[in-house]
Amino acid sequence: MTDGPGPAVVVLADDLIWSTRLASVVDRAGAVAVVVSSAAAFAAALDGSAGAIVDLALRSSDPIDAIALAAVRGTTVVAVGPHEDATTRKVALAAGASRVFAYRKLFEDGPRAIARAFGLPTEVPPPASVAAAGRGSPPAE
User: Fold this and answer.
1) Measured between alpha carbons, how far is 102 from 19 in angstroms, rounded to an integer?
2) pLDDT at residue 130, rounded to an integer
3) Helix, strand, or coil here: 77?
4) Pick from 99, 98, 110, 80: which is nearest to 11 by CA?
5) Cβ distance 121 to 2 under 8 Å?
6) Backbone angles phi, psi at 79, to 5 degrees
7) Nearest-CA neighbor of 106 among 130, 87, 81?
8) Cα→Cα distances 5→8, 46, 47, 68, Å
9) Alpha-carbon distance values, 92 to 14, 29, 54, 89, 115 (Å)
């Protein structure tokens, strides 16, 4: 984690649940999530960012176009999507994504995966709920 606000990572997602989850993963990785839901806002937010995350289930615009835009600008871009959609994941890599993660990977190891993808320190603490489970009273019988 960083001692102050970390670098900005732009998150392009238009699903409320996934945009919130992705922002949380970015924040826990020590960066500052800048969540946008349109291609225009994404393009504007890329300048000065440390990287970008694009949800492959994006409905408001073409996620592959967004990946290509970020890659052409020299921005490290990571895509996320369903693990069963291998074709779209391959297209995302061909468009310039440096990594494509399945949603499940980000659920299991999100902060560390994102920190590695964007060159951030990878000593990320576990979520509070996981840390709390390891201490306290023994389980009730």
Assistant:
1) 15
2) 41
3) strand
4) 80
5) yes
6) -110, 150
7) 81
8) 9, 17, 17, 28
9) 18, 23, 10, 5, 20
Handedness of CA 59, 83, 71, 42 (dihedral sign): positive
What is the structure's pLDDT at 124? 52
Domains of the chain: 8-119 (3.40.50.2300)
Q: In what order do the strands lie in the sheet with 99-102?
A: 32-36, 8-12, 51-55, 77-81, 99-102
Could you identify the residue written with the tokens 């994404």? 42
Looking at every residue in the chain, the average pLDDT score rounds to: 85
Mean pLDDT of 122-136: 48
List, in order, residues 6 or more apart from 42 with CB less than 8 Å away. 10, 12, 36, 52, 54, 61, 66, 69, 70
* Cα Rg, the chain, nearest whole Å: 16
pTM confidence score? 0.82
| H helical segments located in the chain | 16-28, 39-46, 63-72, 86-95, 103-117, 128-133
- Tokens (6 digits) for 48: 């000065």
Q: In this model, does residue 131 exceed pLDDT 80?
A: no
